[in-house]
Design brief:
- This protein has one domain.
- It is 27% helix and 25% strand.
- The chain is built from 8 helices and 19 strands.
- The strands form 5 sheets. It has a 9-stranded antiparallel beta sheet with strand order 1-2-18-17-16-15-3-11-10, sandwiched between helices. The protein has a 4-stranded antiparallel beta sheet with strand order 6-7-9-12, with helices on one face.
- β13 and β14 form a beta hairpin.
- It starts with a helix and ends with a strand.
């Protein structure tokens, strides 16, 4: 099945035509453009736990009407099972999501997917193909280490590009490294110019997965490894010093273990953090979606989609790169 077959079925007409601008506090006006069908579909299905029950119901209804049935697995479900998979944090296009949807539809699992009220504030994932730099990825620990190294390299390259320095200050070889990012004197951000940023990029263990044809086409590669759980590759930032007497307070996670208790405030409401999100997701392996009251976005493939907390149209558009053009300027 060619991706264009699926994409053609999901061409969306947004409430805006072309590009529009919206106010955004002290930052530049947000320029929204129409999100691509592929990006919109990825955000809706990977971000299922960000959706309200009503949004899940509407998405399942639309999928049932619009998905090209001839291109789907025979056991693919677009009814309650589809919404149930979303509610449980599975992409309905993944092998596990297809299986979960079928189980729910068969009545073998009890999930009130359409009326459940639970939603997460953030979802995230990291995918890898079967090979990295020409070599097979053979174990979960190897895949997890590759994911962490890739994220660190992206952060270092991003910091250099925006006139900042980065150093790891806690759990540097562990699953939840804490990075300290400081500003160089030669560059100033016009809208948001913190002297200090703490960034936590945690990584839950990578699990081996079996790709489906539709999932592979949407991702652009056949996934062989995926971070575990609906928040498998968490992203959070803070702009305050939270070490006490030179030591960071710690918390514990069953999978991650001990990590620095960063008072996270994941956001996208300024050009600097949007540039970081674009850098982290630029090669299509990492995805992160946020549904806090102050920040609603889904970052993927080097782009950032604006989300709506309650509207049936979950994705309202892509924040156009020109929104942030010229935000960084020499002193």
């Amino acid at each position: 099945m060619a991706f264009r077959t699926v994409a053609a079925a999901f061409v969306v007409t947004l409430a805006v035509a072309g590009c529009v601008t919206t106010g955004q506090g002290d930052g530049p006006k947000i320029v929204l453009k129409e999100a691509s069908s592929r990006d919109r579909l990825l955000a809706e299905t990977m971000g299922g736990m960000l959706l309200t029950p009503s949004q899940r119901k509407q998405l399942a209804k639309r999928m049932k009407q619009e998905l090209p049935k001839q291109d789907l697995p025979s056991n693919f479900d677009t009814g309650a099972g589809f919404a149930g998979a979303l509610a449980l944090g599975f992409s309905p296009f993944s092998a596990q999501g297809v299986s979960t949807a079928g189980t729910i539809s068969a009545g073998l699992a009890v999930v009130d997917a359409l009326t459940a009220t639970d939603r997460m504030n953030q979802v995230s994932a990291f995918y890898l193909p079967s090979q990295f730099e020409g070599n097979d990825i053979r174990t979960s620990s190897e895949a997890t280490r590759i994911a962490q190294n890739m994220k660190r390299a992206r952060v270092e390259a991003w910091a250099k590009s925006v006139g900042r320095s980065v150093s790891c200050v806690h759990s540097c070889d562990g699953p939840a490294p804490l990075y300290r990012i400081t500003k160089d004197a030669a560059v100033k951000d016009r809208y948001f110019d913190p002297g200090l940023i703490y960034l936590t990029l945690a990584q839950r263990p990578m699990e081996q997965v079996q790709p489906t044809a539709l999932e592979s086409q949407l991702l652009g590669f056949a996934p062989a490894w995926k971070s575990s759980g609906p928040a498998g590759s968490p992203f959070c930032i803070s702009m305050e010093e939270f070490a006490k007497d030179g030591k960071f307070p710690v918390s514990k996670d069953p999978q991650i273990g001990e990590y620095a208790a960063n008072p996270c405030r994941s956001e996208h409401q300024n050009p600097l953090i949007r540039s970081l999100l674009r850098a982290l997701t630029s090669d299509g392996y990492m995805f992160v979606g946020n549904m806090h009251a102050y920040s609603q976005f889904f970052a993927l493939n080097g782009r950032i989609l604006q989300l709506d907390r309650v509207a049936d149209k979950f994705v309202t558009g892509e924040i156009a790169p020109e929104t942030d053009a010229g935000a960084l300027a020499p002193l």
